UniProtKB/TrEMBL annotation:
InterPro entries: RNA_pol_sigma-24-rel, RNA_pol_sigma-70-like, RNA_pol_sigma-70_dom, RNA_pol_sigma70_r2, RNA_pol_sigma70_r4_t2, RNA_pol_sigma_r2, RNA_pol_sigma_r3/r4-like, WH-like_DNA-bd_sf. Residues 9-73 form the RNA polymerase sigma-70 region domain. One of its GO terms (molecular function) is DNA binding. Residues 125-175 form the RNA polymerase sigma factor 70 region 4 type domain. Belongs to the sigma-70 factor family. ECF subfamily. GO terms for biological process: DNA-templated transcription initiation. It holds the Pfam family Sigma70_r2. This is Sigma-70 family RNA polymerase sigma factor. Keywords: DNA-binding, Sigma factor, Transcription, Transcription regulation. The keyword Hydrolase does not apply. It comes from the Bacteria.
Length: 192
């Protein structure tokens, strides 16, 4: 049991990072991670090492976060979401020509380079997390669940009560918002 507790302590920072991005509330993130770790301790005999411990704990946390959002009485309407996404959408059309291709001035620069090629991956991760915080909350949550956690679109749609089309629009806006932010906060800075 002590060995299992030590393993949980080792994955806690990454689990907490996930919770912070999802919840955008430091205290709530701490509480949710604590609940997930307690649940993992209670169920440690159910843990099968064929899946990674971090993956297993993140699955517990993801369920706790989903339950939290389901329990909220004041669910955000799609209209409110669209208002939140207005800042991203505002500049979106200006990035493409009439055929839907990137305009040269708006196309991502140095985007083909893998983040691993940069000498300090932690700085890139911090820049990405800061850019995620700049997105509307639910947009960041949906992006993180899909692109970082690998959650299926159908599951995200069920959790957020949105259609597949809405999910893909939100993901598209998130990618474009992150592209612009990372270009400014990371790629431009590293090209100097």
């Amino acid at each position: 049991m002590e060995q299992f507790q030590a393993l949980l302590a080792a994955v806690r920072p990454e689990v907490l990072r996930f919770a912070r991005v999802q919840l955008r509330d430091e205290d709530l993130a701490e509480d949710m991670v604590q609940e997930a770790l307690v649940a993992a301790m209670d169920k440690y005999r159910q843990f099968r090492s064929d899946s990674g411990l971090k993956t297993w704990v993140l699955a517990i946390l993801k369920n706790k976060i989903s339950d939290h959002f389901r329990s909220l009485k004041n669910m955000v309407s799609l209209d409110e979401w669209q208002e939140d996404n207005h800042a991203i959408e505002q500049n979106f059309d200006a990035c493409f020509d009439e055929r839907g291709h990137w305009l040269a001035a708006a196309a991502p620069q140095a985007w083909d380079a893998e983040p691993e090629t940069f000498t300090d991956q932690q700085e890139f991760r911090r820049a990405l997390e800061n850019c995620l915080r700049g997105l509307p909350e639910d947009t960041a949550r949906i992006f993180y669940l899909r692109e970082i956690m690998g959650m299926e679109v159908e599951e995200i749609c069920a959790d957020f009560a949105i259609s597949r089309e809405n999910c893909y629009v939100i993901l598209h806006r998130a990618r474009n918002g992150l592209r612009a932010c990372l270009q400014h906060r990371w790629f431009d800075w590293h090209q100097e």
